[in-house]
Amino acid sequence: MKRIAALILSLVMIFGMCTVAFAASKKLNYLVIGDSIAYGEGIANPGEACYGRMVANTNGYNYRNLGIDGITTSDLLLLINSSSEMKSEIKKADIISVSIGGNNFLRSNLLWMLVTIVFGNLDEVNKTADGIYDDLGKIIPAIKELNPDAVILMQTVYNPWKAAWISGIYQKGVDALNSAIRRYLKDNPGSYEIVDVAAAFAASDKDLIAADTIHPNGEGNKLIAKTVLKKLKQLGLGSKTEPVIAIEPIEKVSLSLDNNLRLIRYYLNTAA
Fold first, then answer.
1. Given CA atoms 187, 107, 156, 76 in this order, what sign does their dihedral have?
2. Nearest alpha carbon to residue 53 among 265, 218, 230
3. Which of 5, 22, 24, 160 has a CA between 20 and 30 Å from the CA of residue 119?
4. Cβ neighbourhood burial of 72 (10 Å; 0-12, 13-18, 19+)
5. 151: CB partners within 8 A, 6+ apart
6. pLDDT > 90: what percent of the chain?
7. 210-254: per-residue pLDDT in tens?
8. Does the pTM exceed 0.90?
């Protein structure tokens, strides 16, 4: 009987050790969803070198990116509810990075909105921010219904402009947008973790914006990756804060539109 008991105990210990070893070796699944910033539109090789790929390479995650150019919060909600691929990836994910909201601002009547801001009228901006808040109230529960255990990282939206005359105007729109993101978390504690990309960009003195004047360039993607990695380390989901760059981002420059936009950006940012 003693031999049998000893054999059973040995088997239990071996099984336990194998289980622990398997758990330790299991890679976390990292999913990036949202807009063109999530996709990596500002560089020519987003699949190899956008911030999501950097984060995955640094922490050894399995990686999927389902970011789509131009989508708003309502578009993302539609995808979560209707795309079988999106649903499948959300169900598998351990960590989900979300970049969304900027296009709600850009795809509205942006010029009119900026004009109203100049004259101190924030009604349109606040209306857009309220729409983001309402959509988050559907997006986050939809994600949690598919995967209640996933850690959701919600990125704030940065201001791409440096020139004071336009940056101050645009900042009011960005502030309203990010306020909606923070307000939703305050009203629904534990819904997600905020990754403050906006603050990181504002504090940097580097050129972080691509030739198209909106998206992060290579340095911008590195800074977003670093900001995400810091949050993951705080959460115990990673140990490094400096991104591992397996392949350097290639700046996206075209001989037509992007060059024209680069010139426009130069004159806007250097205007008196």
1. positive
2. 218
3. 160
4. buried
5. 94, 95, 96, 193, 235, 237
6. 68
7. 998 899 999 999 999 999 999 999 999 999 999 999 999 999 875
8. no
Token pair belonging to 26: 């299991």
Compute the average pLDDT of residues 190-205: 97
Q: Over 80: is that where the pLDDT of 22 sits?
A: no
Structure tokens at 155: 């990125």
| Mean pLDDT, the chain, whole residue set | 86
Q: Are 76 and 42 in contact (CB under 8 A)?
A: no
